[in-house]
Amino acid sequence: MPRILDSEVLSRLKPLGLNARQPMLGDVSGRHRSPLRGSSLEFAEYRNYVPGDDTRRLDWRAWARSDRYFVKEHEADTNLRLSVVLDSSGSMNYPLRKPMGEATTRFDYMKRMAACLAWLASEQGESVGLAAIHKKNPVDLAPRRGARHLGHLVEQIEELSAGEDLAIADALHHVADRLPRRSLVVLFTDLFTDLEELQPAIDHLRWRRHDVTIFHLLEPSELEFDFDQPVKLLDLEGGSPLLADPALMASNYREVVQKYLKKVSEMVNRSDIDYHRVDLDQPYEELLSQFLLRRS
Fold first, then answer.
1. How do residues 193-215 score in pLDDT, each as one tens digit?
2. 3-state secondary structure of 151
């Protein structure tokens, strides 16, 4: 078991299952609705018989009542394609106020959460892929099924590092173009990017009929700015350090943060995506549990 996977957490989350919010187009039979018609227990509709249809699907009771031939259509069940997208920009290295075991930064927390979700999806027969936003060592694994592929994917997550200024929007456009069928796209990020550039990228994914989820990872100190003495702030993406006195700037800082969160909320409502703000003081097991239960 890779170090970023906790067997106890996996055993508790496995019974919950991962469900899609909309019909999926997979490659094998599964537990999710498909926009296509097929064979399942869920009745969809009647349609008129046309020459060439399988006569085993004729409803003879309907014929006895109306003297007309009708074919019974059923919902098709399929698997889903999960594409996990990871933000590896420098700001993801922000330290946790309350480290969780070996997870001491936002990036460590994200990797454990993403690997856990990928494992859960793979265990229920879904295809899982990975896109890690990185300039020097980008990772781009197409969704596939199987234990060997999952092992390679988790290994890629474990070896990933953060530390660059990256364009999340460009990566999402790439994901939208690369996925040929509607999929569940899950983005793990701190959303410290230009939201006006990000909006068209999310719209691109939604236009391709992907089910989009964003886990917005924020450390409480980033929202509250509750430092009680002057601090030296370091730019994790290469900018100059800044000396700050919380007593002078805390109020303005919180006002700017609220405006930023309002813009995020407007983007979410406009795009109809599944958005989750992640409090990094909370165990990721609880957050994934809430996410899976909401989709059930």
1. 899 999 999 999 999 889 999 99
2. helix
Q: Are residues 129 and 238 in the same domain?
A: yes
Do both 178 and 250 map to the same domain? yes
The domain that holds 235 is classified in CATH as: 3.40.50.410
Reduce the DSSP state of residue 234 to 3 states and report it: coil
Taking only the tens place, the pLDDT of each residue in 206-240 is: 998 899 999 999 999 899 888 888 888 888 877 78
Q: What is the pTM of this model?
A: 0.81
Q: Kindly give, in sequence order, each residue whose CB lies less than 8 Å from that of residue 215, ignoring residues fewer than 6 positions away.
A: 110, 113, 186, 187, 188, 189, 276, 278, 287
Bridge-based pairing of strands 70-78 and 127-133 is unpaired
- Residue 64: is it exposed, middle or buried by C-beta count within 10 angstroms (0-12/13-18/19+)? exposed
Residue 188's SS3 state is strand
- Enter the tokens of residue 173: 């456009």
Same domain membership, residue 72 and residue 103 = no
Q: Which residues of 213-230 are buried (b: 16+ CB within 10 A; e: fewer)?
A: bbbbbbbeebbebeeeee
pLDDT band at 137 (very low <50, low <70, confident <90, very high): low
Confidence class for position 22, pLDDT limits 50, 70, 90: low
Domain contains 27: no
Q: Is residue 146 one of the residues assigned to a domain?
A: yes
Q: What is the pLDDT of residue 156?
A: 92
Structural domain span for residue 195: 7-22+80-295
CA distance 102 to 70: 62
How many residues appear in the chain? 296
Looking at the structure, do residues 49 and 146 belong to the same domain, yes or no?
no
Residue type, 74: H
